[in-house]
Amino acid sequence: MRNLGDNELKINIIGLGYIGLPTALMLTKGNYEIVGTDLNQKLISELADKCMRFSENGMEELLKEACNRDIRFTVEYEQADVYIVAVPTPYIKTSKKVDASYVIGAVTKILKVCPGDCVIVIESTISPGTIDRYIRPLIDGHEGVKLAHAPERIIPGKILFELENNSRIIGADTNEIGTLIKTIYQSFCKGTIVTTDIRTAEMIKVVENTYRDINIAFANELTKICKEAELNVYEIIRTANMHPRVNILSPGPGVGGHCISVDPWFLVGDYPGLANIILAARKINDSMPEYVLERISEIMEKEGINNISRIGLYGLTYKEDVDDIRESPTLQMLSIMKKHLASGIKVYDPYIKEKILENQFLEFKEFTENVDFIIIMVGHKQIIEQLDIIRNKIILDTRNVIEIEGVYRL
Ligand SMILES: NC(=O)c1ccc[n+]([C@@H]2O[C@H](COP(=O)([O-])OP(=O)(O)OC[C@H]3O[C@@H](n4cnc5c(N)ncnc54)[C@H](O)[C@@H]3O)[C@@H](O)[C@H]2O)c1
Known about the structure:
Elements: E1 9-14, H1 20-27, E2 32-37, H2 41-48, H3 59-68, E3 71-74, E4 82-85, H4 101-113, E5 118-122, H5 130-139, E6 145-149, H6 159-165, E7 168-172, H7 175-185, E8 193-196, H8 198-229, H9 233-240, H10 263-270, H11 276-303, E9 311-314, H12 329-339, E10 346-348, E11 360-361, H13 364-369, E12 373-376, H14 381-384, H15 387-390, E13 394-397, E14 408-409
Parallel strand pairs: 1-2, 1-4, 2-3, 4-5, 5-6, 7-8, 9-10, 9-12, 10-11, 12-13, 13-14
Antiparallel strand pairs: 6-7
Helix pairs in contact: 4-5, 8-10, 8-11, 10-11, 11-12
The chain binds nicotinamide-adenine-dinucleotide.
């Protein structure tokens, strides 16, 4: 591999989704040759036409700027000095362990085009020990191939801001590799970059998301307790958080997305019997879509509603102001309803522009005209700014974002 001081190290980013694409675009700010690789030919053609697949503040502009600098998109893996792997890492539903098959597939292909003299940086979130278990055996005999782990911490909706400003961790086997990778990330990241060993870096990332999952589960459990005790959970959390050492997160209809609802399972899968709070938290958060259904049924009875087709779910994404629907609580709820043969509920999300569900509306006005009871599943800015349109409806606000007299809450 060439030295860091050499002009134009070549970096091949593998996987151009929510994480890989912005990372590749940001890296064009440094003095590197950047190649973005994804197996999805359609995605590559769209990127070559400067078209974004997901909406994110500032990304379209950055894509155009990057295309004017040194970046290419391709389905091929290329020989490079550094590889950054940002492919999916789901969990195996039965064992709860990380499904490392995408990462293994990517590294295997890298080794075919570059059998020696490169650094392979795994950015994908992986359970502690994944690199030792699955990746090291692959590079056995590939003299000069080095490994590092640089997990990503950004949140969709603020991707570019957080890529630039978050602190980050880099795990590497030697100081030399840690420093090389740190310098590359410093080409766009102004936050503190801590270097450590690979297994510690793997654990830190999973611990961060697990911490948030447990905190949300605590808020959700409090919600159920306060409902039983006829107390206002929001007032209780807000006021408890005035304590200088208390910071309870917000309750909600469930936890979705590709991180918080997935990564804690890795620890449950690898340490059954030890990961007790973690497992309980996962179960509490997974129970929330069912809890929302119970709230809907209570409110229907109280309000004398018996026609499910006049009920509407607002929000399909897993969080506000993004278009990512992976593991979304609304989809989890619809799947529970399907099992109970309940159908006909209406759905709308301003960020989902194509019809993916039978009873989905693409226009907000049409959606509101067809429902009497709206359940706010996601607190998109769009609905907060258009409260007048829904003011006379029955509303269940699962995100506590609507301030209208008489709104039901969790
Ligand atoms: N999305 C987030 O908010 C977020 C935040 C932090 C960390 N992460 C982690 O980052 C990783 C990537 O997540 P994402 O949200 O970007 O996923 P994504 O599904 O948006 O993108 C993954 C991309 O990888 C491509 N791909 C799959 N296998 C490939 C292969 N062998 N070679 C080339 N391309 C391949 C897919 O076509 C897809 O475009 C995951 O481990 C995730 O846990 C995600």
